[in-house]
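User: quick one - fold this with iron/sulfur cluster bound?
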Amino acid sequence: MIEPIRDQFRRPLRDLRISVTDRCNFRCTYCMPAEIFNERYQFLPRAQILTFEEITRLTRLIVRLGAVKLRITGGEPLVREELETLIAMLRPIDGVDDLTLTTNGFLLPQKAQSLREAGLNRITVSLDSLDDAVFRRLNGNRSSVEKVLQGITAARQAGLAPIKINCVVQRGVNDHTIVDLARWAKDEGYIIRFIEYMDVGTMNGWRLDDVVPAREIVERIHAVLPLEPIERNYRSEVALRYRYQDGAGEIGLIASVTMPFCGACSRLRLSPEGELFTCLFATQGTDLRAPLRAGASDEELETIIRGIWADRTDRYSEVRAAQTTPRDHKVEMYHIGG
Ligand code: SF4
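Assistant: Sure. Structure tokens for the protein plus iron/sulfur cluster:
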């Protein structure tokens, strides 16, 4: 096994999140509000986006430095054409233990089978509510709940497993529907992760008052479907785990605001245009596309990547609460995929 490189806090590089596009077919209010990302919004031109060959080359180098888990994200990764081709290029990379993808599920009926055949192991689908009106308000009225449920069913029929469901909980928006979502996921056998609403990017008007703490989410579900805490699967796993006392499944809590997990954070992020980000809340990334397209050797690129991680001191969520002035410039989530 490769000895991973470590940052200033001795955190090993273990996870690479690859954002393959800045585009999305939804307009979720906490990520890509429709009033800003309208028909006049200029997304990245094709020429500025890394090709599958470039993504694969950089991924191979980052895996050589310790990454074992790859997560494909966006924007919405399934809007990138022929994504299965990239999956088939990444799958054989020596050292990759886990290859997964986060999607809004809308295109899964068309894509699930080919992604599975290309080598995708498992999948995470975002679904913030089963209440159609609430869901439509959250995604910019771009999809019904039914459409996403069809996508999840297609993923299951294609043999992608486990299937995890992500739900961002906002007070006064969808928090009144989380128990229904938990019950549905329990009955269907999906692992649902409830995510505390975060101040990602600069466009969602985040307020601490709108956050429902993980503790409260657990209390609400426990009152109806009794839960008990269980150990994380591995140290840098982001989710706190709870299983149902009746043994029928588990849920996860991603509590970046009230119980930050920066201490074990092992995630590096690659943006669509080839910038490396060392934190979800980073203010800037490091451009790899320029040296890559200027003919840099693997050794030269590896030296750059090694230096980026070695200098890493990010722990935004741990210092968020102590910050007197909010960080007014942060990379947008749709750009580096949550
Ligand atoms: S805030 Fe940054 S350092 Fe902390 S867990 Fe999230 S990505 Fe990692």
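One thing worth noting: DSSP finds eleven helices and twelve strands in the chain.
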